[in-house]
């Protein structure tokens, strides 16, 4: 909505009412890469070891993608905040 000021309210509402699973998957993957990079950097700072940081990041990548996808799909089925 902010990127396209000409987008009308009807389009905004219809966008908010449904989100396809493929979109949730794309959001899940993009967010996890950002989150995993953050985890790897923090792990490297705390442990001082690149190998440990990468191991923590790789486990976290998989588990948090699964959790986020489930969270996203549950929220998509809740009407709270939708018109």
UniProtKB/TrEMBL annotation:
Residues 25-76 form the DUF2061 domain. Pfam families: DUF2061. This is Putative membrane protein. It comes from Gillisia mitskevichiae.
């Amino acid at each position: 909505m902010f990127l396209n000021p000409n987008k009308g309210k009807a389009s905004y509402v219809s966008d908010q009412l449904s989100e396809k699973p493929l979109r949730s998957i794309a959001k899940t993957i993009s967010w996890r890469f950002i989150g995993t990079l953050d985890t790897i950097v923090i792990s490297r700072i705390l442990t001082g070891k690149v190998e440990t940081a990468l191991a923590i990041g790789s486990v976290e990548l998989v588990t948090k993608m699964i959790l986020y996808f489930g969270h996203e799909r549950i929220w998509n089925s809740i009407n709270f905040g939708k018109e």
